[in-house]
Design brief:
Layout: H1 10-19, E1 25-30, H2 34-38, H3 40-46, E2 50-55, H4 69-82, E3 86-93, H5 101-118, E4 122-127, H6 130-139, E5 147-149, H7 156-163, E6 168-171, H8 181-187, E7 195-197, H9 219-230, H10 234-249
Parallel strand pairs: 1-2, 2-3, 3-4, 4-5, 5-6, 6-7
């Protein structure tokens, strides 16, 4: 919602989300994106439920190739500026490889160390890099780290591996796609207290909206599909998801700035 895709109709986007009962919202910001940073105050004014994560995405790790630790320095400054409650999205992406693997890993490690030092959750982006990501999580903190596998789209085996970290798994609109049977099957493996759902707006709009701009209100469709797959009613699952969100990120009414005092 901090992207230009929502600049023209942000109040309407928020109104639609409220109508379907969206109570919690985490907006992920690129620490190196000044334009996104400039929209934070507007978002906060428009919707008090909004909370923020900030990080250097693996696609942009190359910007810090000469000094990976500078990525963590920038993220830490943005945490203070924006009152963010999490670090992310961070991780490894070997599919597109916009940044070399070595640089991605170094930048990922720097931000994991910051998360551990600040006792903040991380929002993980992992694509075709599961083994390396899991190894680095173990090496950089293990049980001292907490967070969520953002936009999880794997099968049962991948879910089982991810769950060994103690992290949450967040299910996106991909779960509504006809070809995503393996993901829907994996949804049944996730314990109630480790499950989250998301939109990944403005991407990955769920069926029947596929191919259009995604927005927070459409998380209701993800909830419907995930609940059905787990054999429960959406209204029964929703409170558990709110509780999980608050466990990981805290209640949006908390004084966020208090989290980052030295």
């Amino acid at each position: 919602m901090a992207g230009p895709e929502f600049a023209a109709d942000l109040p309407d986007v928020i109104a639609r989300a409220r109508v379907v009962g969206v109570e919690r919202l985490l907006v992920i910001l690129g620490a190196d994106d000044d334009e996104e940073m400039a929209r934070v105050s507007l978002l906060s004014r428009e919707w008090e439920a909004v909370q923020f994560a900030v990080g250097v995405h693996p696609h942009h790790a190359h910007k810090f190739g000469d000094d990976p630790d500078a990525s963590a320095t920038l993220v830490e400054r943005r945490l203070h500026e924006q009152g963010a409650v999490a670090i992310g999205e961070i991780g490894l992406d070997y599919h597109y490889a916009f940044s070399s693997r070595d640089v991605q890993q170094a930048v990922f490690r720097a931000q994991l160390r910051l998360a551990r030092r600040r006792s903040l959750p991380v929002v993980l982006h992992v694509r075709e890099a599961d083994a390396d990501a899991l190894q680095m999580l173990a090496e950089e903190g293990g049980a001292a780290l907490r967070g969520v596998f953002h936009c999880f789209s794997g099968d049962r085996a991948a879910a089982a591996r991810a769950l060994t970290t103690g992290f949450f798994l967040s299910i996106p609109g991909i779960a509504t796609f006809p070809a995503a049977g393996a993901l829907r099957d994996a949804v049944t493996l996730i314990p109630d207290d480790r499950l989250l759902i998301e939109t990944d707006s403005p991407f990955l709009a769920p069926v029947p909206h596929r191919g259009t701009r995604n927005e927070p209100a459409r998380v209701a469709r993800v909830l419907e599909v995930v609940a059905r797959q787990r054999g429960v009613e959406p209204a029964a699952l929703a409170p558990r998801l709110v509780e999980n969100f608050d466990t990981l990120f805290g209640c949006p009414n908390a004084r966020k700035a208090q989290l980052y005092k030295d």
